[in-house]
Design brief:
This is Profilin. By secondary structure, this protein is α+β, with helices and mostly antiparallel strands. It has one domain: Dynein light chain 2a, cytoplasmic (Beta-Lactamase, 2-Layer Sandwich). The chain is 27% helix and 34% strand. The chain contains three helices and five strands. A hairpin with a 2-residue loop joins β2 and β3. It is globular, with a radius of gyration of 15 Å. The two termini are 30 Å apart.
């Protein structure tokens, strides 16, 4: 399912129609941060794939399925988007990976650094 706009000239043609999580999936995923303690018992779904969640930490969810997975980090401040003047959104970073433990460690570090950068920048 292609959910990304194809008229974004900054994206290379090959990445204009990658699988993307649905709006419903993303809303459900964002709500996981409301009660991180329960996430390992239920897991998480992204792009129609169910991931086990072996652990969570403050504002961090780690999902795994076979040799792939994701890290998701939530910034601690709210991000106001001009798309909807009456809504406030929290920035959530999700990075997917495929590979062994070394790859997952690198992805985790990158996600945590980006979340820290956004927080320090006021997001």
């Amino acid at each position: 399912m292609c959910q990304h706009p194809t008229d974004v000239p900054s994206l290379p043609p090959a990445s204009r129609c990658l699988p993307w999580a649905t709006e419903a999936e993303l809303k459900k995923f964002v709500s996981l941060f409301d009660n991180l303690a329960n996430v390992p018992s239920t897991g998480a779904d992204l792009e129609e794939v169910h991931y086990i969640v072996p652990r969570t930490e403050e504002n961090l969810i780690f999902g795994k399925k076979d040799k792939s997975g994701f890290f998701a980090a939530k910034t601690k401040t709210d991000l106001f988007l001009l798309i909807n003047e009456n809504a406030t959104f929290t920035a959530i970073l999700i990075a997917m990976y495929e590979g062994e433990n070394q790859v997952s460690a690198e992805v985790r570090t990158a996600v945590e650094k980006m979340a820290k950068y956004l927080e320090d920048s006021g997001y």
